[in-house]
Amino acid sequence: MIYHDLVIIGGGPAGLSAAKVAAEAGVKSLIIERDFKVGGQLVKQTHMFFGSEKQYASTRGINIASILIDDVFNKSDYIEVMTEATVVGLYSDNIITVLCKEKYIKIKAKAIIVATGASEKFLAFENNDLPGIYGAGAVQTLMNVHGVLPGQKVVMVGSGNIGLIVSYQLLQAGVDVVRVIEAAKNIGGYKVHASKLRRLGVEIKTGQSIKEAIGKDCVEKIVVAELDNKWEFIEGTEEEIEVDAVCISVGLSPLSSVLSMGGAQMKYVAFLGGTVPMIDKHHETTINNVFVAGDVCGVEEASSAIVEGYYTGLLVSERLGFKHPNHDELYKDFKNQLANLRSGPFGKKTRLGLKEILR
Amino acid sequence: MLKTDGIPTKKQVLSRFPNEELLDRPKAITECYEDIPCNPCSTSCPFDAIHI
C-alpha cells in the first residue's frame, strides 16, 4: 500500500490546476493520468479560447496545456505525476486501485479529487461503425495532434461549439465541409463561430440529423432527414449526401463511473450531460474527503474546469490542514470567475444543473 | 436567421453600426450578437475601443 495526502485522478485542466493550488498551500499530491502524458483534451485544441484573460482567453488550448503543465512540473517537489496509469477502483475507505504498466497498485489517500472529465457521446444509426465515421475528438486528435486528414468531404453532425470549431479547422486544413447538421431547432454553439462558417460557404441546417451511413469498406454516402418535434425522422425528407468522412459532435457525458463504484450518491442531470455526483459547496461528494472538479460534475468549457480545479485544490488543502496563504482572497476570486463564466444565457443549463446536485 | 443558419439579419448588422457622425473614418464593426461570457475583444483591442 502506498500512502499519499492528496491523490488527483485525471491530469487534464481541472486536475493540473487543483495540484498547482494545493502545492502553493503546501500539500503534496499525486496526479494519476491514464494517457501517456498530462494535459487532457487541451493538447488537441489548437483554437484560441474564449473566456477572460484569467482563464487564458485568446490563448490556444495547446498553449494553455503547456502553461498548466509547466506550473505542475515547476513544483515537482510537491507534485508527482504518474502516467499510463488507470484508476480501476475506488473504495469508500479512500483506497484506490490503479492499473499501471500491467501492475495493480493500491493507494490510500487522505483526500481524493476526481477530475476524470467527460467522454464523447455517440449516435445510434445504421452502419455507424463504418470506417470514416469519427467522433469530433478523434478528428481533433488526427488532424491537430498528428497532422492527418480524416477525409476530403465531411458532414459535421452537431452544431455545438466543438462541432463548429472543428468544422472551421477542417476548412483550414483544406477539407470540404459539405454541411453542418443539427437535430435541434437552433444552432447549439456561439453564433460568432456559426457565422464564420457561413461566410465561408458552409451550409448549416437545423432540425436535421443522420439516419444511415452507406458504404462497402468505408463510408461513401449518408442519408440525412428532417426531425419533427418528437425527434422522429419525417418520412419523405430523406436526402443522400456523398462523403468520405462523418464527424459526430453531439456532446459529452461526465466520466463519473469511478464515483458510482465508490458508493457516492449520484444523480442523472440532463443539464449537466449525464450522471453526476451530489456535491456540497466545497465540491465534496457524499464520500468523506472525496472531491470533484471539472467536467466530471457537469460538462462545461475547459475554462470552467481550470477554475474549478483551482477552487477545489484550495478547499481540499484547507481540509488537510494546509490553508493557502491567500486563501480568502483566492476563494472570492475563483467564485467570481466561475459565476462570470456561468452568467448569461449560455450558462443557464449549468446554473440549473448545479442547483440539482447541491446537497 | 442567425440562430438557425448563422446569417444575421440586416437589422442585427445595423445594430452594431456607429452613428453617422462617427462614420467619417473607416470603422471595425463587430459581428457578435450574443451575451457570451468572454472578453478577449475588449482586452486585445489596441485602441481601447471595445468595452463590455
Which SSEs are present, and which pair or pack?
The complex is a heterodimer of chains A (359) and B (52).
Chain A: E1 2-9, H1 13-25, E2 29-32, H2 61-73, E3 79-82, E4 85-91, E5 95-100, E6 103-114, E7 118-120, E8 133-135, H3 136-145, E9 153-157, H4 161-172, E10 176-182, H5 191-199, E11 203-206, E12 208-214, E13 221-226, E14 239-242, E15 245-248, E16 252-254, H6 257-262, E17 266-269, E18 274-277, E19 290-292, H7 302-319, H8 327-341, H9 348-357
Parallel strand pairs in A: 1-2, 1-6, 2-3, 6-19, 8-15, 9-10, 9-15, 10-11
Antiparallel strand pairs in A: 4-5, 5-6, 7-16, 12-13, 13-14, 17-18
Chain B: H1 2-5, H2 10-14, H3 40-44
Low-confidence stretches of chain A: none
Number of helices in the DSSP assignment of chain B: 3
* Radius of gyration of chain A, whole Å: 21 Å
Give the CA-CA distance, first to last residue of chain A. 33 Å
Number of strands of chain B: 0
Q: Count every beta strand of chain A, where a strand is a DSSP E run of 2 or more residues.
A: 19
Question: Fraction of residues of chain B in helices?
Answer: 25-40%
Q: From the alpha carbons, calculate the radius of gyration of chain B and give it in angstroms.
A: 13 Å
Strand content of chain B: under 5%
Count of alpha/pi helices of chain A: 9
Can you tell me the overall shape of chain A? elongated
Q: What's the assembly state of these chains? A: heterodimer
Question: Which blocks of ≥5 consecutive residues of chain B have pLDDT under 50?
Answer: none
Question: Outline of chain B, from the CA principal axes?
Answer: flat
Beta-strand content of chain A = 25-35%
Mean pLDDT of chain A: 97
- The mean pLDDT of chain B is 88
